[in-house]
Amino acid sequence: MLYDRWLRIARQNRARLALRDLASGEQWTFSQLAQARPPHSQPTHGLCCPRGNRASFILELLDGWRAGRIVCPLEAGQSPPNLPAPPAETVHLKFTSATTQRARLVAFTAEQLAADADHIVATMGLRPDWPNLGVISLAHSYGFSNLVLPLLLHGVPLFLLEAAWPEMVRPACSLAPHLTLAAVPALWRAWHEASALPANLRLAISAGAPLPLPLETAIYGQCGLKIHNFYGATECGGIAYDSSAVPRQDASCIGAPLQDVRLSLDSQGCLEVRGAAVGSTYWPTPAATLDQGCYRTSDLADLRDGMVYLRGRAGDQINVAGRKVSPESIEHELLRHERVQDCLVFGAPSPEAERSEMVVACVVVEPSVRIEDLRQFLLERLPAWQVPREWRVVESLSPNQRGKLSRTEWRKRLGYVPAAS
Predict the structure, then answer these.
(1) DSSP labels for 106-157?
(2) Residue 255 · residue 296 · CB < 8 Å
(3) Do residues 410 and 361 touch, judged by C-beta distance below 8 A?
(4) Which of 31, 51, 190, 339 is most buried, by the most CB atoms less than 10 A from its CB?
């Protein structure tokens, strides 16, 4: 189904430019891409495992589709999984991001993959005359559904940039009069600080981690570019999208449900996602959170006036002497401080009480900012018991290769050691 649909797209757009590999200078029309083969011969059985952010990823993927093999994209250095044959009708396996637990595989049918791309293209308005500039991982669900599938199933050209440094983004953006750019908050911040955002961006998308409201507002104020916040999950593809033309007023608002995506809340207030793009199952170990066309997230949310508001993760809530607080709510207030550039809050075991936690904040701040000033700033906005007890000042909060900030990873890295104040 996927390969047949690709061939129809290739025939309809045969003479148009489809793919450019900016590192090598190679390019393919849709007709040429349909005839191209990967540079190295591929096995005719087992998994097809494209990796990297070069044109070879696309060529290997098409070769897998052509041979009817199950595709399992991999990040650099990742080994192919050794697992039993997945359920019938499975054509694709995706690794989850492992933000809150170990990575798992999700099985998808062709119809589920295609539905996700259809929802994204229709909701975001991706267009064949606005090529995608590819700087995010093609293996990750975000990059695969926003870059790879729009190329192959909707005819949206893709320009691949191997690295996202500002000095490489500037010349790349001159290759077309209009471009779409999907990235993560860390990249938007780096480009903003380097004044590398081009004037010919027609659609700017941010996903993979929450988009800080001060960053969204600063970019809009500097060059009038609206960054559209996008929220999704490996298990179900795109969930919500902020299509507004101006910056949001509430950082917890992540937009409206994507076209044909149905949202509800469970008894604990966690978001449930239903629709044609929801994956079949975790594999090889199924779980009740992904079953019968429903993905039950751990994200606490509100649904009102057609919009989605995230209130944190159920598993991330911090238990302070029997009272629960979402770390996102503390981060939201910290980021209101004009000299706080970034922050991450998590819970750590309290040295004074069993089964209780203390609030820890690691912050990226401008020089000369005092922790006591930050503490006082929060005391004016939050109950005292929610104000972080321990603080760490760090140079940057570098996300992982998928643009995620893992509380677990940073908790281990910092070792709960407070910063001097």
Answers:
(1) EEEEHHHHHHHHHHHHHHHT--TTS-EEE-S-SSSHHHIIIIIHHHHHH---
(2) no
(3) no
(4) 51
Helix (H) or strand (E) holding 218: helix 213-223
Give the span between the Cα atoms of 68 and 86, in whole angstroms: 14
Q: Which residues pair with 201 in a beta bridge?
A: 179
Measuring CA to CA, which residue among 97, 108, 20, 94 is closest to residue 58?
20
**Domain boundaries of the chain, sorted by first residue:** 2-313, 317-414
**Distance between CA atoms of 221 and 202, rounded to whole angstroms?**
16
pTM: 0.83
Contact 291, 107 (CB under 8 A): no
User: Three-state SS for 160?
Assistant: strand
Contact 285, 301 (CB under 8 A): no
Q: What is the pLDDT along the chain (421 residues), one digit of tens a residue?
A: 999 999 999 999 999 999 999 999 999 999 999 999 998 766 656 899 999 999 999 999 999 999 999 999 998 888 899 889 999 999 999 998 755 456 789 999 999 999 999 999 999 999 999 999 999 999 999 999 999 999 999 999 999 998 888 888 888 888 899 999 999 998 999 999 999 998 899 999 999 888 888 899 999 999 999 999 999 999 999 999 999 999 999 989 999 999 999 999 999 899 999 999 999 999 999 999 999 999 999 899 999 999 999 988 777 888 888 888 888 889 989 988 989 988 999 988 887 766 678 999 999 999 889 999 999 999 999 999 999 999 999 988 876 555 567 787 888 888 764 433 3
Pairing of strands 357-365, 253-257: unpaired
Beta strands in 314-388 (DSSP E): 318-320, 323-325, 340-349, 357-365
Task: Please give the structure tokens belonging to residue 408.
Answer: 């677990």
Domain 317-414 has CATH 3.40.50.150: no
Name beta bridge partners: 74.
51
